[in-house]
């Protein structure tokens, strides 16, 4: 077993990068000296931009501000401007698609390293992991000849149901800001433009292209903009993708306030603002209010894009100044020259190297969060001991599930993906017996995704669902996708008229027993023939046998008229699932049970929010029964968003692993068996119930508008304000060793004007194993003229320590850290008074406190 992950000092060769505990930001050449290919190039960027701009015709300039393919921008061969290519890729460079449609180009050499998702980077609370992630992503984008990589993403996890939480960096603006800056720098050092997204307020997928975000200015500035601001001011990000949603009645891409006043005005952004695909813009507002690049619009030809022929006509008519267009073209050219598109010495990149795969494993392991680890018998449940455990029972939907090709635009085509089960098998070899089962709930379960051949465009098995206004189904109201053959009505005032369709592919030939529980009118047709026609006022199960062939796809169509629910399940030949009595008997006999549960990209995915915060397919019931059967059951959750855990108090060991990339299974095994001492911390709050979260409690989640009624009280700030105890708090995470914090000091008890204060403390590893602790700095304003959170994260430091070792941590607070956005002066305001510094290991575990006074003289 490779032991490299046990080292806090590791050597990894990425683009010639040498890292030992601290990862350098600069590439190293073969002689070992620092090589800066950018310096000479960057010194002449503005001169080169102006010289090139002067050569272009009006028509040529227009051709540079809109796409000429799904992921590329027009070349102008007359003056030597090359074609510019973009690629999706928060977690790896996306496979190649056709130039003019969304189908795969069919390449056989477009694999990429599938990195852990950004929630895992956020859970590491480690800037080195952000750098490592960025180095790999940037190098692989360059190897694929990409110029823009469309990531990282920093939209905040305001709502646990948000379908894209898994792509982002948690719920706190400062955590996201401090991690995205080093990642952007690392990407761009590889001569590729990073594209931070989605600017701004993209916090739900429900009607994502139409929902109107209307936060007050203080909430906007303090919560939803800091990560973007840091990306511009500190990382010099070259690309920024606008959000789908509206902001006060107009699309975010063409909001004068968001773009001209703040992004390009106050912050001085010099890069390119580009759209996501198919956003609701118009030519005049987009042009005049700062959109630079239109990437995808639902029109027949590229010439019909809003920033194509319509823009040209407006300029020729004198309605839009050509200088507006010139600014956009300057930005495009500025990126091209900055990343070396005209430079023979542009970095070539690397892809699918061993070092990149090791990096994926390292990042995944550092992001694993140990939520709970109780003593059973004489020791803690985790880490598991290979010497004493001879029989392990493995269950759960994520035990052998791969996630790389799902989720939407973040899908990655990787050379391989190690599942948790594969990682366990490789870790344990032949010495330990691993029994694998898929547990069946006592509740009727929908047809498993294994049998569903139809796919949502994000790549996951799904059913199409159509909502009609009438029972005759002549007037379509809306259309979407649903994970499986289970439907629960949200209609309080009438009857739903829905039709659901999917292609179903049996795994074995023979009799399939269809099981239906429906309240209302339910009809099932298979290949056009009605096989079940059922009306019921209760949920009693109706069964019907049907003969089906193996590996043949059947068109299933459900029509339902009712206002309650239905489930369509079946008993299929060679049943995939184990009955309750059998799996519980196996659990009682096992030395340890590992349940790999959680979500998948059928739940966490672009374009659709989750319907609730529960674990799907009756996982809660199965987990509760396993916990009762064997007290050494480890619940290992893989998910990108919060889930309810009604069994949390009953469990003795809970681990959270995120979508861990291609090396997830190895990383998870490393943690479970102690090869790696877990050091991750939750970047999100794990509520006990969905209704405890602010948007739901305040009835501010709908398809029309989001008022952000909770204001600056996002995540843990809301829970503390409302005195609601979550299942696990923001920043929580345990270790296999113990740490002590002591000796907090502030550099000055009184500061004024622009002075900063340095906060120091001692951290000691008091346990028997090497490990890392994340010291979190929160700030409390003891008396303010506005309502402020009880505490706000302002800094953190991850410290690696040997047993008995002590190190000092040091973090700096600036005037900005003390400030709130003052709506009277329309600026940041630090009020005179006393501030309390709180150091702890989670938001609910503050260990040290100290105060200082700020004077505004």
What report would you give on this structure?
Belongs to the glycosyl hydrolase 3 family. This is Glycoside hydrolase family 3 C-terminal domain-containing protein. Keywords: Hydrolase. This protein is α/β, with parallel strands linked by helices and about 850 residues long. It has four domains: about 5-340, Alpha-Beta Barrel (TIM Barrel); about 355-440 and about 580-705, Rossmann fold, CATH 3.40.50.1700; about 450-570, Galactose-binding domain-like (Jelly Rolls), CATH 2.60.120.260; about 740-855, Immunoglobulins (Immunoglobulin-like, Sandwich), CATH 2.60.40. It contains 20 helices and 40 strands. Strand 13 (about 375) and strand 14 form a beta hairpin. The model is unreliable at about 1-35 (pLDDT under 50).
Strand content: 25-35%
Total helix count?
20
Overall spatial form: globular
Determine Rg (CA atoms, Å). 27 Å
Task: Work out the number of β strands.
Answer: 40
Q: Give average pLDDT, whole number.
A: 94
Largest sheet: 6 strands, mixed
Distance between the termini: 61 Å
The CATH H-level superfamily of the largest domain is Glycoside hydrolase, family 3, N-terminal domain
CATH T-level fold name of the largest domain: TIM Barrel
**Helix residue percentage:** 10-25%
Widest beta sheet: strand line-up: 3-4-5-6-8-11
Pick out the low-confidence regions. 1-35
Oligomer: single chain
What structural class is derived from the secondary structure elements?
alpha/beta
CATH class of the largest domain: Alpha Beta
Domain module tally: 4
CATH architecture annotation name of the largest domain? Alpha-Beta Barrel
């Amino acid at each position: 077993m490779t032991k490299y992950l046990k080292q806090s000092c590791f050597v990894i060769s990425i683009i010639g990068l040498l890292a030992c505990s601290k990862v350098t930001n600069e590439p190293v050449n073969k002689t070992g000296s620092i090589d800066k290919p950018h310096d000479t190039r960057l010194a002449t960027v503005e001169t080169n931009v102006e010289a090139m701009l002067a050569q272009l015709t009006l028509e040529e300039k227009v051709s540079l501000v809109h796409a000429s393919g799904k992921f590329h921008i027009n070349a102008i061969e007359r003056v030597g401007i090359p074609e510019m290519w973009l690629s999706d890729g928060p977690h790896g460079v996306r496979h190649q698609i056709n130039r003019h449609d969304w189908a795969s180009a069919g390449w056989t050499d477009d694999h990429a390293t599938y990195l852990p998702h950004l929630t895992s980077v956020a859970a590491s609370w480690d800037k080195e992991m952000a750098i490592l992630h960025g180095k790999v992503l940037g190098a692989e984008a360059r190897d694929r000849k990409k110029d823009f990589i469309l990531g990282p993403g920093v939209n905040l996890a305001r709502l646990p149901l948000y379908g894209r939480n898994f792509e982002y960096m948690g719920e706190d603006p400062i955590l996201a800001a401090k991690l995205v800056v080093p990642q952007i720098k690392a990407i761009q050092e590889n001569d590729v433009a990073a594209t931070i997204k989605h600017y701004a307020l993209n916090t739900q997928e429900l009607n994502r292209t139409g929902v109107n975000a209307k936060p007050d200015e203080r909430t906007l500035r303090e919560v939803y903009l800091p990560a973007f601001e840091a990306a511009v001011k500190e990382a010099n990000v070259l690309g920024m993708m606008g959000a789908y949603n509206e902001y006060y009645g107009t699309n975010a891409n063409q909001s004068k306030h968001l773009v001209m006043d703040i992004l390009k005005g106050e912050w001085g952004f010099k890069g390119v603002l580009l759209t996501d695909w198919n956003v609701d813009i118009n030519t005049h507002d987009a042009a005049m209010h700062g959109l630079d690049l239109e990437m995808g619009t639902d029109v027949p030809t590229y010439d019909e894009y809003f920033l194509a022929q319509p823009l040209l006509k407006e300029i020729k008519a004198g309605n839009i100044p050509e200088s507006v267009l010139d600014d956009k073209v300057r930005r495009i050219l500025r990126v091209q020259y900055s990343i070396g598109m005209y430079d023979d010495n542009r970095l070539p990149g690397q892809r699918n190297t061993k070092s990149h795969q090791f990096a994926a494993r390292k990042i995944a392991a550092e992001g694993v969060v140990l939520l709970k680890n109780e003593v059973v018998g004489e020791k803690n449940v985790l880490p598991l001991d290979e010497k004493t455990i001879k029989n392990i029972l493995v269950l759960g939907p994520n035990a052998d599930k791969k996630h790389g090709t799902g989720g939407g635009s973040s899908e990655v085509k990787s050379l391989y993906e190690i599942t948790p089960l594969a990682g366990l098998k490789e870790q344990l070899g032949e010495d330990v017996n691993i029994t694998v089962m898929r547990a069946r709930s006592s509740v009727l379960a929908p047809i498993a995704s294994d049998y569903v051949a139809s796919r949502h465009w994000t790549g996951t098995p799904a059913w199409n669902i159509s909502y009609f206004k009438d029972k005759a189904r002549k007037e379509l109201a809306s259309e979407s996708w649903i994970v499986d053959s289970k439907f629960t009505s949200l209609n309080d005032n009438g009857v739903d008229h829905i039709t659901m369709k999917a292609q179903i592919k049996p795994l074995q030939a023979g009799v399939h027993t269809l099981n239906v529980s429906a309240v209302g009118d339910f009809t099932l047709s298979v290949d056009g023939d009605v096989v079940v026609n059922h009306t019921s006022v209760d949920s009693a199960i109706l069964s019907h046998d049907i003969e089906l062939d193996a590996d043949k796809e059947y068109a299933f169509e459900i029509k339902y008229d009712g206002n309650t629910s239905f489930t369509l399940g079946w008993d299929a030949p060679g049943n995939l699932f184990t009955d309750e009595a059998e799996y519980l008997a196996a659990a009682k006999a096992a030395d340890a049970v590992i349940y790999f549960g959680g979500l998948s990209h059928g739940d966490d995915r672009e374009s659709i929010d989750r319907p609730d915060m529960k674990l799907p397919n009756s996982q809660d019931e199965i987990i509760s029964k396993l916990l009762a059967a064997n007290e050494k059951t480890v619940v290992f959750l893989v998910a990108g968003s919060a889930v309810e855990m009604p069994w949390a108090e009953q469990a003795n060991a809970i681990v959270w692993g995120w979508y861990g990339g291609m090396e997830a299974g190895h990383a998870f095994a490393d943690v479970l068996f102690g090869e790696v001492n877990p050091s991750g911390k939750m970047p999100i709050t794990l509520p006990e119930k969905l209704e405890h979260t602010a948007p739901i409690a305040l009835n501010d989640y709908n398809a029309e508008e989001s008022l952000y009624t909770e204001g600056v009280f996002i995540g843990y700030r809301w829970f503390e304000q409302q005195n609601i105890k979550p299942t696990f708090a923001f920043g929580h995470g345990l270790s296999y060793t113990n740490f002590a914090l002591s000796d907090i000091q502030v550099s000055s008890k009184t500061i004024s004007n622009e002075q900063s204060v340095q906060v120091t403390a001692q951290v000691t590893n008091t346990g028997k194993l090497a490990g890392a602790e994340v010291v979190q700095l929160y700030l409390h304003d003891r008396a303010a003229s506005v309502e402020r959170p009880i505490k706000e994260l302002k800094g953190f430091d991850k410290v690696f320590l040997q047993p008995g070792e002590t190190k000092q941590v040091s973090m700096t607070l600036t005037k900005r850290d003390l400030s709130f956005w003052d709506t009277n002066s329309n600026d940041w305001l630090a009020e005179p008074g006393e501030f309390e510094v709180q150091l702890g290991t989670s938001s609910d575990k503050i260990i040290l406190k100290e105060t200082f006074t700020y004077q505004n003289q």
